[in-house]
Amino acid sequence: MEFLNKLDFRPASFRVFKHYSGVKFKADLTAGIVVGIVALPLAIAFAIASGVSPTAGLVTAIIGGFLVSALGGNSVQIGGPTGAFIIIVYNIIALYGLTGLAIATCMAGCLLVLMGVFKLGTVIKFIPYPIVVGFTAGIALTIFSTQMPDFFGLTLKEQAPSDFIGKWGVYFRSFGTLDIPTTLTALGSLAIIIVAPRLSRRIPGALAAIIVASAAVWMLRHTGVTDGIETIGDRFAGMSSAIPAPHALSLDMKAVNLLLPSAFTIAMLGAIESLLSATVADGVTGSRTNSNTELIGQGVANIVVPFFGGIPVTGAIARTMTNITNGGRTPVAGIIHAVVLLLIFLFLMPLINMVPMACLAAVLVTVAYNMSGWRTVKAIFHNPKSDISILVTTFLLTVVFDLTIAIEMGMLLAILLFLKRVTQNTTIRVYGEQLDAAEGTDMDTHEILNLAPGVSVYEIEGPFFFGVATRFDEVIRSSSMKERPKVRIIRMRKVPFIDATGLHNLEILIDSSHQEGIEVVLSGVNENVRAVLHKAGVDNKVGAENICPHISKALEVANAMALAE
Question: Domain spanning 427-564 has what CATH number?
Answer without folding.
Answer: 3.30.750.24
